[in-house]
Amino acid sequence: MLEARDKLGAVLAPAGDDDPDVLLSLVDQIEPPALMLGWGEPWLEPMTSCNQTGRLVVTCVASRLAPGDGIAMLEQLVAYTLGRLTSEYQLDNVTGPRVFTIAKTNYLAARVTVRVTVN
Is 10 helix (H, G, I), strand (E, B) or coil? Predict the structure, then answer.
């Protein structure tokens, strides 16, 4: 469990200049576009006597909430995230676009939740 976020961060890490920044934990400010990693609900569920299924959330933060191409950027971030996932990560769900507030600033975001085996 202690390495799950770090491993997902390495999978999503920028490979080129146009790739989004990946933040390995919750933050109090963000410069979009960016991906922020955290744990989902339920955090862990029993799978076997030694392993659990964990849910990791990739919050795709496209832009500040304002008129413009925010939805197109959000679609690109979700596609980037899904395209980078390896077989270790099973897609659980993707939320629709929504307002996500950090430090009293509203952003356009969506959450990609994946399942991963942890021990």
Answer: helix
45: number of CA atoms within 13 Å, CB side? 9
The DSSP string of 20-82 is PEEESS--S---SSEEEEEEEEEEEEE-SSS-EEEEEEEEEEEEESSSSSHHHHHHHHHHHHH
Instruction: Break the chain into its structural domains and give their ranges.
Output: 4-13+21-118
What CATH code would you report for 4-13+21-118?
A: 3.30.70.1700
Predicted pLDDT of residue 49: 84
pTM above 0.70, yes or no: yes
Confidence grade of residue 47 (pLDDT, cut at 50, 70, 90): confident
